[in-house]
Design a protein that fits this description.
81% helix, 2% strand, mainly alpha, two-stranded antiparallel ribbon
Amino acid sequence: MELSALSTRFWRWYDMLVDYAFKATLVLLMFIALSIGFNVLMRRVFDSPVGWVIQGGQYTLVYIAFLAAPKLLQVNAHTRMTLLTDRLNPSRARMMKLFADLVSSAICLVLFYLTAEATISSVQENAIYRGNFDINRAIIWWGMPFGFFLLLIEFLRQSWSGALEIKAHRGLAEERETEASS
């Protein structure tokens, strides 16, 4: 199999995984909304609030944050500090974005390692969170290394695209200089 075909298959698989993770967050958001509505109904109408709703909602928010983040990054729907980059010329702004993507990749790599290590440790220790319902800590934490891994891949992808964009713009600038001097 040719490398470009392999690369295409990988990115198709990766994009599909990111899309499914994002769709899962929509289902989880619906679950939170319905469970809160159910809790309000039970408390107001039957004077019998459901204890698991708040604890379950807290755990669900962890999944939502880490499963949605890669898609939001992929489509540039995340918040971005543009105070500095808006004041730079386009060439320097591209360099700044590449630098930020590389630093973000490194941060995601470290956080992936740390959260994966903590998740594996919680599996080995059979660590349990106690509350309205008991739940194994690894069930809650697995979303963090998964999300950081997908974010790492996405930041590396954006770094690569940014580097190619910088290279292309440098090539265009050199062509313009050559034409101007002729």
